[in-house]
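To make this tangible, this section ends with a sequence with its structure tokens:
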Amino acid sequence: MYSILVVDDEPLNRDVATRRLQREGYHVTVAENGMRACELMEVELFDLVLLDLNMPRMSGYDVLEWVREQAGIDSKIIVLTAARDRDSVTRSLQRGAHDYLVKSAGTPELLNRIRRLCTLRQLEAAQPDGISERQMQAARILVVEDQRTTVELLLTRLKNADLSARGVTDGGAALAALAETPCDLLLLDYHLPDMTGLAVIEQLREHYPTEELAIVLVTGEADRECIDACYAAGADDYVSKPFHAADLLNRVKNALRLKFMRQQARDNDPAARSLP
């Protein structure tokens, strides 16, 4: 059972989060402010922390700074807040948050993020050497987006982060490119000229499990049913347009780390395929 610390100054938010997480089988502890959260983290090692930003006396940013200065705290941290501006996203990730999610995203998306980070933490504990920067830079990424200008923008963002990528503009070209040269991660739009992103995912998952290919949706599609269908078909993550570059790159790197860790776990122990 994973342990989660919920840090929020609003009692209703704490109560709702606690009930939802306990229904999923998580052990939940709550803190009403940043100072109390730090006191609890000095005593117990939580698997994951859900952290609000705007709190009196000690903000979420201050908590992130405090955690960064502590040698023994390795909890995964998701900033869960109402703020969606670029500065809030960038400041949070720069200070060590592992993910950033606005509260309006809803419970299914939050649970997806929690499951991925808890799985990553479990794999990291079993593989203390982790994933090297060299492995990350050698990752092969394929961008699938029908707008050429968006392809070029994504390729530039990835290149600036020392990640190698190439791009295509439809689903058929993506399937052909992967058949010719395997890649580690697919950045996939939902609306393509010849098929949907869902159809691409369904075809790819017949041949490529999650430890061989990570799939991240990057799309303006707002229909929750479509997004959930993509998750059910095998998508690993979802980034909505318009996106913040820092958030996009963080999701890509998290997906790559999880993919490589799963691959190493499978190679070391075939039973690791059962990890979520």
Remarks:
- The mean pLDDT is 92.
- The beta strands are 3-7, 27-31, 48-51, 76-81, 99-102, 140-144, 164-168, 185-188, 214-219, 237-240.
- The chain has two domains: 3-126, 133-274.
- The first strand starts at residue 3 and ends at 7.
